[in-house]
Specification:
By secondary structure, the chain is mostly beta strands. The protein has five domains: 2-139, Immunoglobulin-like (Sandwich), CATH 2.60.40.10; 146-252, Immunoglobulin-like (Sandwich); 259-341, Immunoglobulins (Immunoglobulin-like), CATH 2.60.40; 347-428, Sandwich (Immunoglobulin-like), CATH 2.60.40.10; 430-485. The termini are far apart. The structure holds 2-acetamido-2-deoxy-beta-D-glucopyranose (6 copies). One 2-acetamido-2-deoxy-beta-D-glucopyranose binds at residues 177, 232-234, 239. One 2-acetamido-2-deoxy-beta-D-glucopyranose is lined by residues 407, 417, 419. Keywords: Disulfide bond, Membrane, Signal, Transmembrane, Transmembrane helix. This is Ig-like domain-containing protein. Residues 142-248, 254-337, 344-423 form the Ig-like domain. Residues 1-24 form the signal peptide.
């Protein structure tokens, strides 16, 4: 009831003042807030309407203290201008009355403590008193945020929270916000899965530093995830955002499959080779131990590579690799079969040597025992003369005689080769070689005579001494003939 009376009284007064030109009221208009960076200059504008001129109004500026009291910092009327002594603003403010109805309070070197309410009060001698207020908001852009990821690996699926990393942003005002991301997705605390814990420090300067730790119940998929922090912070009239670098973590997970294979040599294995067997799982858990077995017999050592030197056919068989994860005691094993190929010494029939008569034919065979298909070629004096495990030798003449070599190879495998030889003699009466029956070499007072003969059995050479001696003087020379006899 009383309120309604007051309201209607005021309305009546207002109507009266406006129609009669007296009883007007002062009206003050101010922005709700003014935003400014620390150390910069803030300007708070106080607008008012009054029918009085500058001379008929006084201006007062107040601050609202922490305890909520009003403290005057400035006063001005037509007689005096006074900056109040001993206030935090005594040396930092100025007031500019630009024309009618506008008063600007300028604050230099704005500090965090200046974040408060400023009141402008206008008093008119005829129109009464009115005031308005503006909140001053102060900002400081924080330093670039940092991220520190965990360096040690984490075993997956431990069902416990493990610290992944820490983000920090320093010296911002107001308090910056940190949000963790895994890939595209912002992370929020979920019991037993994700824990984001932040702590804020107020520096001696009054600026805020924020630290945020991320802990996760690490899963295998996290090995491929990238983590980072996004920092958001307000600025005058807007807000801004920065990101940290992206980090990842090493996740250890046990194998679900195990593979064992011959790493080298490539292709078929032969006796004498060095064989490297490798065993590897599709996990990366450092706590898994590998062991090898050959035909169910343990091979000493616990590395993932097993080197067999100078293998023989006895090394053929099944190799088994077993992996035991020392955390989970999960056991996996797999096998590979190694086949060491061999080629024994070549066996020739007839062996070593054979005597043939001219016109005789002979079947010779040559082969070697092998785990693989073999091929035989025959050489005589280094020239290939036949192919195949069986050849027919025909003693057409004494020229058939000689040393025959059979070379047995395994075409599939380089370097698998063996050979054997057969000496063939062809029976024939001795004959002198056509080319050099006699070769003469003169040495001072001595003459060396040579006589070459072929035949089987080996011919015996005798020299006919002075037999059928024939002397002949031609040009003072002396000719003496000797006879080379074959038997
Ligand atoms: C007061 O405001 C006027 C108009 O904006 C300007 O020209 C003048 O420099 C100001 N004076 C001070 C002391 O800031
Ligand atoms: C993890 O980070 C390292 C170094 O920053 C990088 O070399 C590697 O490729 C990253 N791995 C993944 C899966 O992103
Ligand atoms: C910071 O986070 C709080 C709570 O989530 C939110 O109310 C505030 O608006 C955020 N500030 C910025 C600048 O994003
Ligand atoms: C054993 O090895 C084979 C061939 O690499 C693979 O296909 C199989 O999945 C493996 N078995 C296990 C139990 O790891
Ligand atoms: C390889 O083993 C065989 C017997 O299996 C042996 O006679 C030979 O000397 C060995 N070679 C080397 C290089 O150790
Ligand atoms: C025959 O075998 C011997 C001994 O293995 C070898 O030294 C020789 O080179 C081989 N000869 C040929 C022509 O293959």
């Amino acid at each position: 009831m009383a309120a309604r009376i007051t309201a209607s009284l005021l309305a009546a007064l207002w109507l009266f003042a406006h129609t009669c030109g007296v009883w007007a009221v002062v009206e003050v208009n101010m922005e709700e807030k003014v935003e400014v960076f620390r150390e910069q200059t803030a300007q708070i504008t106080c607008m008012y309407t009054s029918d009085e001129g500058i001379g008929g109004t006084s201006v007062e500026w107040f601050i609202v203290t922490r305890s909520g009291d009003m403290e005057k910092i400035y006063f001005q009327d037509s007689f005096q201008t006074k900056i109040e002594p001993d206030t935090p603003y005594t040396s930092r403010i100025s007031v500019n009355r630009t024309g009618a109805g506008v008063v600007v309070l300028t604050i230099n070197k704005v500090q965090l403590e200046d974040e408060r309410e400023f009141i402008c009060q206008i008093q008119s001698f005829t129109e009464g008193i009115s005031k308005g207020s503006t909140n001053l908001r102060v900002f400081e852009r924080p330093k670039l945020p940092t991220i520190e990821g965990r360096t040690e690996g984490v075993a997956a699926d431990q069902n416990e929270l493990t610290e992944i990393g820490t983000c920090e942003v320093k010296n911002g005002y107001p308090k910056p916000n940190i949000t963790w991301y895994r890939g595209e997705n912002p992370l929020q605390s979920i019991p037993n899965e994700v824990e984001v814990s932040s702590s804020t420090t107020t520096e001696s300067t009054g600026l805020f530093s924020v630290q945020s730790k991320l802990s996760l119940n690490v899963k295998k998929e996290d090995k491929d995830a990238e983590f980072y922090c996004e920092v958001t912070y307000p600025l005058p009239g807007s807000s801004a955002m920065t990101e940290t670098d992206h980090i990842n973590i090493t996740v250890f997970y046990p194998s679900t499959e195990l593979y064992v294979w011959v790493e080298s040599p490539e292709g078929k294995i032969k006796e004498g080779d060095t064989v490297r067997l490798r065993c590897s799982g599709n996990g990366n858990s450092p706590s898994s131990v590998l062991t090898f077995k050959h035909n169910d017999v343990d091979i000493p050592g616990d590395t993932n590579v097993n080197v067999l030197e100078n293998v023989s056919r006895q090394d053929s068989g099944v190799y088994q690799c077993t992996s035991i994860d020392m955390n989970t005691f999960l056991e996996l094993s797999n096998t590979t079969t190694v086949n060491v190929n061999f080629l024994d010494a070549a066996v020739m029939t007839p062996s070593e040597s054979v005597i043939m008569a001219v016109g005789q034919e002979l079947e010779a065979t040559c082969n070697a025992l092998s785990s693989l298909q073999t091929q035989t070629i025959w050489l005589k004096d280094g020239e290939e003369v036949a192919k195949g495990h069986i050849v027919t030798l025909k003693a057409t003449s004494i020229d058939t005689a000689g040393t025959y070599m059979c070379v047995v190879t395994v075409p599939e495998v380089d370097g698998m080769e063996t050979n054997n030889t057969l000496r063939v003699f062809v029976k024939s009466s001795p004959v002198l070689s056509e080319d050099d029956v006699t070769e003469v070499e003169t040495k001072e007072e001595m003459v060396l005579l040579s006589c070459y003969a072929r035949g089987f059995p080996v011919p015996v050479i005798t020299w006919g001494t002075h037999a059928d001696k024939d002397e002949d003087f031609t040009g003072g020379g002396l000719v003496s003939s000797f006879i080379c006899l074959l038997t």
